[in-house]
Amino acid sequence: MTLSLWLALVGAGALISLTPGAGAVNTMSNAIASGWRRSLWGILGQQVALVVHIVIVAAGVGVLVASSPILFEIIRYAGAAYLIYLGVRQFLARPQDATEDGSAILVRESAWSMFRRGLLVNLTNPKAIVFFLAFVPQFIRPDQPLIPQYTVLSATVVAIDIVVMWFVFAIAARGLARLTRTPSGQKVLGRIFGSLFVGVGVLLAAVH
What we know:
The protein has about 210 residues and is mainly α. Helix content is about 75%, strand content about 0%. The chain has 9 helices and no strands. Helix 1 runs parallel beside helix 8, helix 3 (about 40-60) crosses helix 7 (about 125-135) and helix 4 (about 60-65) crosses helix 7. It starts with a helix and ends with a helix.
């Protein structure tokens, strides 16, 4: 991959990552509930799903998913249902008590739980496969060895997404963390992020 093409990939990857979606909502939710550092586990789960999507496209299976309405619809609705489930669960979550100094109690969710949820949030979004079907070929030259090109592309996209998720969305969520100091604030945040998850899920199911 030439330097100019790689720089174009960096610009496109940054723009894509900065576009709010289910991954961004999940990252912000984790950062508020479990802290900025531990939110990385959910981000890593999202990156594994991203790599899986790229591998699927590279293997040509993405063409099958995109051309099979039934398979596409099954995966699409499964992803939408999972996001809505996360939203309802967060919407109905009970507030945690604050500490004596008024600071919030962070939820000690396991790293595996956050990783798994991040993986499922991105993995059950078939539109990502269709998107990569259009995105990836722009940066791949078929007359050159493919494995090195896909390796560079995957590493670049993953690195950009980790930086954006952890240092943009997760940090932005820290500004809302003060609301977690009171039960009423926690309830408001739970309803906000719950509604966002449900909204993203509904959009995933409704938009064709």
